[in-house]
Design a protein that fits this description.
alpha/beta, 2 domains, five-stranded mixed sheet, 73% helix, rod-shaped
């Protein structure tokens, strides 16, 4: 703004000087003396020199302004290019980050879907197991399958017999062919879980105590039946095994019902799992 104001002032001064020279020349009488004419001529030359100097200054100012405009335009362009580059770089990083986040989200969703599928399958298996354990015959078959898998995994094939028939016609779930002593020993794969299930679903202290009494009674009755059926002098060992196909029930039995375990041991009907 200051440069343009200076240009306007210079142009105005030149114009005023020219106008002044013209007025002076016109006002001189035709009879002016030679000295006066010389002064006027010198003044005109001086004004002409001033005009030329001012014109040169104007040209120089114009060049300076043009150079400054070009420099300013270049500076603005450079800054715009830098800013554009930074914006593009930021957008590129943002896009990469979003893509990475989306990929991670997709992977997690796949894992969640797989976990939900596994949970659904596990729920179906749990429901199926509950159905098995709620039926006495199915529970017995389940125990036999568990027992068979365990025995086959740890003993040679010629050391056991499944569904062996004893001399009195009774059938044993598994007969271990052991040398004397102790001799062949029977494993029974059935376990009374009705009272145990009632114990787990008891809603009050009264129901729990009743279920505990029933559980003790059922286990004692079953141990007695095993001893009477599968302890045969001269044919089997003087003890039998009651297989419990549940580690949780086995642990709870030894933790909370030690008197039941002791009674079974005294009756030679040892509880195993």
């Amino acid at each position: 703004m200051d440069i343009w104001l200076l240009i306007v002032v210079v142009i105005g001064a030149v114009a005023i000087g020219g106008l002044l020279a013209t007025v002076i020349v016109r006002r001189q009488p035709d009879t002016a003396s030679p000295e006066t004419g010389g002064d006027i001529k010198a003044l005109a030359e001086r004004l002409s020199q001033m005009t030329e100097a001012q014109a040169a200054q104007q040209a120089q100012l114009a060049q300076t302004l043009q150079a400054q405009e070009r420099a300013l335009a270049k500076s603005v362009d450079d800054r715009l290019q830098i800013l554009t580059g930074r914006i593009n770089e930021t957008l590129e990083k943002t896009n990469k980050t979003q893509k990475t986040n989306l990929d991670d989200l997709k992977e997690r969703l796949v894992r969640i879907d797989a976990a939900q599928k596994n949970l659904s399958e596990l729920s179906s298996q749990v429901v199926g197991l509950q159905d098995i354990l709620s039926n006495k015959q199915a529970r017995g078959a389940f125990g036999e399958v568990q027992l068979q898998g365990l025995v086959e995994a740890v003993l040679p094939p010629d050391s056991y017999t499944f569904q062996a028939t004893l001399a009195d016609g009774k059938r044993a779930d598994c007969l271990l062919d052991l040398p004397n002593p102790p001799g062949p020993i029977v494993i029974d794969a059935k376990f009374p879980l009705e009272a145990w299930r009632q114990l787990q679903t008891a809603q009050s202290d009264t129901e729990r105590k009743e279920a505990e009494r029933a559980f003790r009674r059922d286990v004692a009755t079953h141990v007695k039946a095993i001893a009477e059926k599968y302890i045969i002098p001269g044919e089997t060992a003087d003890a039998a095994l009651m297989f419990l196909p549940s580690e949780a029930v086995y642990a709870e039995l030894h933790a909370s019902f030690t008197e039941v375990v002791d009674a079974a041991n005294r009756a030679k009907g040892f509880i195993v799992s």
